[in-house]
Amino acid sequence: MTFAQLGLSQPVLQALELKSYTTPTPIQEQAIPTVLEGRDLLGIAQTGTGKTAAFMLPSIDRLIASGKTAQRKCCRMLVLAPTRELAGQIAQSARDYSALTTLRTQSIFGGTSVSKDRQKMMRGSDVLVATPGRLLDLIDQNALSLAGVEILVLDEADQMLDLGFIHALRRIVGLLPQRRQTLFFSATMPNAIKQLADSYLSNPAQVAVRPVATTADLVEQKVVLINQDEKQALIEMIFRGQYSPAGEVVNALVFTRTKHGADRVVRKLGQAGVRADAIHGNKSQSQRERALADFKSGRTKVLVATDIAARGIDISGLSHVINYELPNVPEQYVHRIGRTARAGAKGIALSLCAGDERAYLRDIQKLTGVTLEKLPLPDDFRSAVESGIEHGHEANSRPPRQDRGRKRHPNVRITTPQGKPAPRRNEGDDRAARATGTDGARPAANHPGAKPARSGKPGGFKKWSGGQNRQGGKPAGRTEGGENRGGNQPMRRRRQGARTTS
Ligand code: AMP
Prior knowledge:
This protein has 502 residues and is of the alpha/beta class. The chain has helices at 10-18, 26-37, 51-66, 84-97, 114-122, 132-140, 157-162, 166-174, 191-200, 231-239, 259-271, 285-297, 307-310, 330-337, 358-368, 381-387, 431-436, 491-498; strands at 41-44, 75-80, 105-108, 125-130, 151-154, 181-186, 205-208, 219-225, 252-255, 276-279, 302-305, 320-323, 347-353, 373-375, 479-480, 483-484.
């Protein structure tokens, strides 16, 4: 299925090309044709499923098709979101998806200047993304009217209720025209939400992406507590059969946080003699199909993927799923590991958890009710990583000048004493980077001159001795393709943070 087959217009299709989206996610496949027809929609889906595009893309087409223009102090499409982070992300997506149209998107949420928001409303907006509190403030100040709304989207309705927005919501919906299209999304559908949906929707189509319940019984779930910059060395050992607690790998799907990260893992595995491929949004359809076919046929034993790329493609029955990085949305973990376990046989889900990912691990264990079995690092792992001797990378590579005489594991980055990446001897020639396994992009965390990692940022991470988050900070935001997406803190933290938002 392609986006064109779903009936989207050319400007939207071109914007998707610019975003490198090639294949619709399941919720997009289901929702887009329905929304294009003008029907109300009840969507049961959580963040990370591609639900924003599922409602935004067809709505953009409907706004264009209706031929109206945004009046002063009015909006044509209103998207309500529970938190300012989510509102900001939705607005950015709306801008990206409508980049080749004349539609105007605005966002308003608490914590920013109200007077600026008042000014923004003067010209009117085609798409307005708002948190409920700030929206009502502006309505009460006569800076905004909802009388012209053609489409209402209620996103993360369950979180809205959790955060106590029910009265605000009722007031807002009471101010909307009766004749409108309503799209209602919630990750869960308890009775209170169902009742709310029934009262706002008229004969809705219902779409749901695989509800997440419990983790598959047949999957052995394990975790290794490890420093971020040691993960590559460990997976190389796993794929070479040098780490017995992980079991024998027949084939493995490895999840990374970013496309760039996926490429880097593949490149380094290749240098270590392990055949691997990556699939992510920057790969063309034919590259993805080839990677998948090679993986399914056993030509490659390791496929490295980002969540969104792995979604919607049929890879199941794996011996291993390896979380090179933990997902920030715990439900995503369940989706990932659901791909292991061959018919009747056990599969292994192994998570590599760095110090700044501990909160994600806690959220995963809370959601699934399973305590992941902690595996020890191999004996002498740290000294082996430090020396880099047994990984065999030195054989065909020569360290750059400033590092000669010191042997390092390829993942140990070479930096200047100020913590800056060491300059390559010859720009455009990445021999130095290959020799050291660095991408020359970031300073080594453990170099005496390195800047201490900012709280909660991945990478730049001090040696972990015993599972404590030395940074004491929040986990870093998860990104896909460099975007900050769908809630960049664990659920619990997002909720706490959200209370002050509007
Ligand atoms: P959402 O569930 O709306 O928060 O989307 C999650 C992430 O997936 C966002 O970073 C989107 O940009 C990305 N995304 C959505 N749809 C697609 C698609 N069809 N292909 C690739 N990436 C997508």
